Amino acid sequence: MNDRGPFQGKFISFEGGDGVGKSTQSQRLSQRLERCGIEVVRTREPGGCPFSERLRHLLVSGSPETMDAKTELLLMTAARIEHVRQLIQPALKQGKWVVCDRFFDSTLAYQGFGRGMERSFIEMLHGWALGGWVPDLTILLTMDPQDGIERAKEKWGLLNGQGAEARFEMEEAAFHQRVHEGFITLARNDPRRFRVIDAMSSEEIVMEAVWKAVKGGFPEVA
Ligand code: TYD
Known about the structure:
The protein is of the alpha/beta class and 222 residues long. It has a single domain (11-217), classed as 3-Layer(aba) Sandwich (Rossmann fold), CATH 3.40.50. 54% of the residues lie in helices and 12% in strands. It has 8 helices and 5 strands; from the N terminus they run βαβααβααβααβα. The chain has helices at residues 22-35, 50-60, 69-93, 104-114, 119-130, 145-159, 173-189, 203-217, and strands at residues 11-15, 40-44, 97-101, 137-142, 194-198. Helix 1 (22-35) packs across helix 8, helix 2 runs antiparallel to helix 3 and helix 4 (104-114) crosses helix 7. It is globular, with a radius of gyration of 17 Å. Bound molecules: thymidine-5'-diphosphate (TYD). Thymidine-5'-diphosphate (TYD) binds next to helix 4.
């Protein structure tokens, strides 16, 4: 959808608030693409390669006050630079498809809309770091942010005491509402790249909607 440059593979991101079910859907999409004979690399942000996973640990653990919003933005960006350089671009150059849980839109939604950092600065930083590079297709899963947080906290409850990653889930409801509205705004402003899917339906119905969006975006998928 955007200029392919030297890449043969496709780059698909999943976005949405906490607890909307991105990882389940990205896993199912990856399996379905593989059944069509496509080689898929499934990954996530923050993280995705050993160096960036170390930054992830700093970013998602501890309390919301662990770091300043500026530090958070710079660490998210640093993690992304290495993730793209070490994992995503090499895979795309080899013709593999990359399915990623979150990418730059999360930075606009969380650090921009959520934390109130200036959008033009975040875009400038992304331009400097990665040439403003964005996925070919972005699936935005939406649900009421409070429902999402409840689901995420349930997961967190299960993991409690075993390295819970709940720094963002602990943010107040108004923060999650701003993030949610931020994602909707981003999708509205770029309808060519985004597909918005209601994630309150059953896993199967959401999967079918995701599959339809991918087939619509990439007619080469059988
Ligand atoms: P993730 O593991 O996807 O969380 P979840 O499974 O709960 O959706 O991401 C961890 C947190 O990192 C998530 O709360 C959103 C946040 N995040 C940002 O704030 N900015 C970013 O650029 C990215 C990629 C993630």
